Structures are given as C-alpha cells and as structure tokens.
User: Fold Meso-butanediol dehydrogenase/(S,S)-butanediol dehydrogenase/diacetyl reductase from Microlunatus kandeliicorticis.
Amino acid sequence: MTSNSYPFGGKVVLVTGGGSGIGRAIARAFLNNGATVAVTGRRTAPLDETLAGADPDTTLAIGADLADPDQAAGVIDRVVERFGRLDVLVNNAAQFVAKPFTEVTREEWTGIRSANADAFVHLLQRALPELERTGGNVVVVGSVSGLRGDWGQSVYNATKALIMNLVQSLALDYGPRGVRLNSVAPAFTVTPITEGIAEDEQLLARFTNRVALGRPGRPEDVAPAVLFLASEDARYITGTTLAVDGGTTASTGQPHLD
Assistant:
C-alpha cells in the first residue's frame, strides 16, 4: 500500500466514506501503519468489509448520514467515547452529479451540497475541539475539479472548491491552536463509481490524454499522500492542496495530439 512507514501507533483516525474506493484504501493504509481506525458511511456492510481482518479492539464502523448535523456530531462522540481521543479526520465521502447546470434539480443540488459540503462542516464543528486537544489534523480528499472548471459538472466542482477553500481558511484560524488542515486533489481515479468509464477504452482514452503519467489514478495512489499529510513528516505543512493527479493540472488544457 505504501513505500514509507509512518508511526501512527496510538493515533486515532476517522475516515468518512470508508466503505469503498479511495476511502477504503486510506483506512487500510492507516491500519497497516498501526493506527486505530474508525470508518463511517451510510451503509455498515461495506465498512465492515474495509475493516475485515483487523483487530476489533482498534477498529470501529459507524453507520451514519453525515448530512444530518446530529448524526455527524454523534460520529465524533462515538469515536472519542470508544477510543478516548481523535487525532486525524480524513474527509473523503462525496457524491457526484454531472449534467447541465439549468437541469440540476433543487433536490440534486441540496443532496450534493449536503453530502459534500454540509456534512464536512458538521463534522468539523464537533471534531476541531478534539483535534485541538490532541494536536491533531484534518486531511480532505478534494479534487482537481475543485481547482478549476469542468464541462457538465458545475455543482460538483462548486462543492469541492467550497471544502478546499474552507480548509485553507481554517488552517489560518487553527494553526495557532496546533491543528493542521490540508487537502489532496486527485484527478480521474478508478473506483466503483467510475468503473464504467475505465472499462470503455475509447472513453478512458479521453481522460488519460490529459494525464502526464499516461494512466488513470488508483485509490492506492491517493492513500500514501494522505498518510504523509497526516504524519509528523508534514508538521510544517498546513493550508495546502497536494495534487495527486498524474500531472493533469500541469496542462494548460490544450489537447495532446500524439
């Protein structure tokens, strides 16, 4: 999973959206590096699959809808009650909508905003006092789509930009309190949500055409970057966004003609 080892023994990590894809890879990477890991998502069965084989004394699966402020606060409370502390919050859970802006329904806008932005706000408001107590940190799985625009997915991009800017702003507020906040920004990554694209060679080629390294990302490419930002090796890094995109954002956007 990772080339480097990080001493996360004794640290308590909460990963949202930990039941599949990038969230699962991140949770397992922390487990492999000795952390106590809690994962949360709407369905508990995938969370249990993520934690399968790990020591039940150092793991916790919590089913919750984080768009509900009471449930979000309750997740933080359960982690602290069970393990006595919280050292790292990894905000990964997200929804995706791709359609023309004027066709986005009120329900779709409310849903994606609630899942991608409101849930993070609710979690942070309860988690930050705990992270201040432990000198902990936050890592957000953002997106290159939060850095620039994309065709046909304006509302998704807007929510990603919101949480990534929130990280920067709170890094200023909480740096003096000993809490670091950072983001990673993947580009196209093969997960259960994007497998349909990955299996269509012609469609996949339109995505990899923009990637300097010539292949789509994998969840296992993102997890090590999250571990680094959460570790003491990144102790002087806060308020930053680390692109984990194979060089996608190195491009001006002009087509690769070879």
About this structure: The domain at 12-243 is CATH 3.40.50.720 (Rossmann fold).
